[in-house]
Amino acid sequence: MREARFIKQNTEKWQAIEQEPTTDPDRLTERFIELTDDLAYARTFYPNARITQYLNELAGRQHRGLMQTKRSDLNRFVQFWQYELPLLFRQTHPLLAVATAIFLLAGVLGWVSAAHDDTFVRLILGDGYVNMTLENIKKGNPLGVYGESDQGTMFFQITLNNIMVAFRTFIFGLLASFGTVAMLFYNGVMLGAFQEFFHERGLLIDSILKIWIHGTLEISAIIIAGSAGLTVGNSLLFPGTYDRLTSFRRGMKQGLKIAVGLVPIFIMAGFLESFVTRLTLPPVVSIGIIGLSAAFIGWYFVLYPIILNRRLQP
């Protein structure tokens, strides 16, 4: 193909690239590939022509734009975890306190109910689980359930289940917060009954040192997911100065960000439950893991948002 025809055939495309810049990564990539193809052709057939130099410069500009967009995406990812999510947590601290109170109250009720009614634990946890645990207690391994499954399969199933519980707790906020309250209450009652079941058999400390290795992150994340659900529910119940639809959209966006932000926590909790909880660890190691988990939750979800918010105040 003659140089003049090559230029005429592609001039409109090159002008569009110059005159209509974009920050869309997919579009930038597509344009860069087209330009490098044109540049390769020009270098082959018109190595010393001005059009080859022009295409080389244009491709270079597209490449720089593509790299800047990638860096921007990385910065956006870092900013979400470093600033955006913690500041959002700060806004929801009152609702986090409400979610925590509901869960703790339910836990106490579950404990008391299990202590005064032998059938209550079976009602909440199911006959199958209770019978299996009683059999494990007879064998001298009361928490042997954690070592019965393949680690990889267990990790996948537990992590997926925990994430689904968190998202259900969040989504049920659409029921004017009552669905979220019900989820928090049910999980709190279940935990209280579960711990009383072991306390009644003199195994409370053993269960705490075993279960809370993963439970510290898992239970904390469920409560935080509850604050996300309450955020959605309150946006419907109390729109404030916004119209109800605008308030609902804001609440859904904020709640969804919180729910998504909990996914790494559930992944870590699933890892601990699948690979660490099953181990027979010295009490000091178990206490260390529980303490570090609690410290992380307290720092990232409570203290750091407060400090960051104060730092950014004018």
From TrEMBL:
Keywords from UniProt, A to Z, are:
Membrane, Transmembrane, Transmembrane helix
Show the InterPro entries listed in the entry.
Answer: SpoIIM-like (IPR002798)
Q: Name one Pfam family in it.
A: SpoIIM
Specify the domain of life of the species encoding this protein: Bacteria
Q: Which residues cross the membrane?
A: 95-114, 170-191, 211-233, 254-272, 284-308
Could you tell me what this protein is called?
Stage II sporulation protein M
Q: What is the lineage of its organism?
A: Bacteria, Pseudomonadati, Bacteroidota, Cytophagia, Cytophagales
